[in-house]
Design brief:
147 residues, mainly alpha, UDP-galactose 4-epimerase, domain 1, 4 strands, 42% helix, 7% strand, globular
Length: 147
Amino acid sequence: QDPDGGYAAVIPKFIKMLISHESPVINGDGSYSRDFTYIDNVIQMNLLALSTNNNQALNQVYNTAYGERNTLNDLIHHLKEFLKDFDSQISNLEIQFGPSREGDIPHSLASIDKAKALLGYEPQFDFQSGLKETVKWFWEMVQNVKT
């Protein structure tokens, strides 16, 4: 996702800020959680839906997710940990906490049971492994822009 887009998700925004040695601002205390998933899990789900021979799987709505919650504090911890392999200064950045955003849902966790049962969906990338790949990709993109 484009970290500068109007609807950019938190992960690309935080990565861009950390790479620039800017402190991301977490709304609230960081305990809110989401079911983050890696793009390869989304691709896997789409391919399974496109190629299924299971008639019961047709014309259904599926949650594409990993099926596990992680807090924003978990997210920022792992981002700093993975980015320090490229730039050790990132691990020293202080994280800022701002007020909670009105209307934010505290916790989100998708059920992937139907996708597992009807499509055989088994996400291959958990939160940390997907995040590590994402960090690597963003770092390489930043380096390519600089050269």
